[in-house]
Amino acid sequence: EPLAMDDLDAEELLIQTMNDRQRLAELGKLVGTARYALEGHDNRSLEDTKRRMQRIAKPLADKYRTNELVNAAVDSGERGARLAELYLERSFKLLDEEYAEIPRIERAIRELQS
């Protein structure tokens, strides 16, 4: 449901003008920001980044599994970093309709989760 103009802020307007590729690219940048905040133990920056990621991810289709991407991005450790990378790669493969690559990525995700 569209929001009234006075209910929108500048970031929300920007997000609404983005296509899926731009949203995924922005999420990729924010994964890096989240990882940096984790390394620096900057919880405030981490929470702000997580909120931004959730706002950008919200309009994307469920097939991109952006909730899992966001959760992996803010999960400390190498496992979280690798999962975030895999979820992002998976999203771009879906976007580009490179379906043959998906099973390999899904296997790697399952291996990390087990």
Structural account:
This protein is mainly α and 114 residues long. It is built from 6 helices and no strands. It has helices at 10-17, 20-39, 43-57, 66-73, 78-95, 102-113. Helix 2 packs antiparallel against helix 3 (43-57) and helix 4 (66-73) packs antiparallel against helix 5 (78-95). The longest helix is centred in the N-terminal third of the chain and has 20 residues, at 20-39.
Taking the alpha carbons of the first and last residues, their distance comes to 39 Å
Annotation field: number of helices: 6
H/E topology pattern: HHHHHH
Low-confidence stretches: none
The coarse overall form would be: flat
C-alpha-based Rg, rounded: 15 Å
Strand count: 0
Query: What class would the helix/strand composition place it in?
Result: mainly alpha
Helix content: over 70%
Q: What is the residue-mean pLDDT, rounded to a whole number?
A: 91
Biggest sheet, open or closed, and with what strands and sense?
none
β-strand percent reads: under 5%
What is the topological layout?
Elements: H1 10-17, H2 20-39, H3 43-57, H4 66-73, H5 78-95, H6 102-113
Helix pairs in contact: 2-3, 2-5, 3-4, 4-5, 5-6
Please provide a brief summary of the model.
This protein is an all-alpha fold and 114 residues long. The protein is 71% helix and 0% strand. It has six helices and no strands.
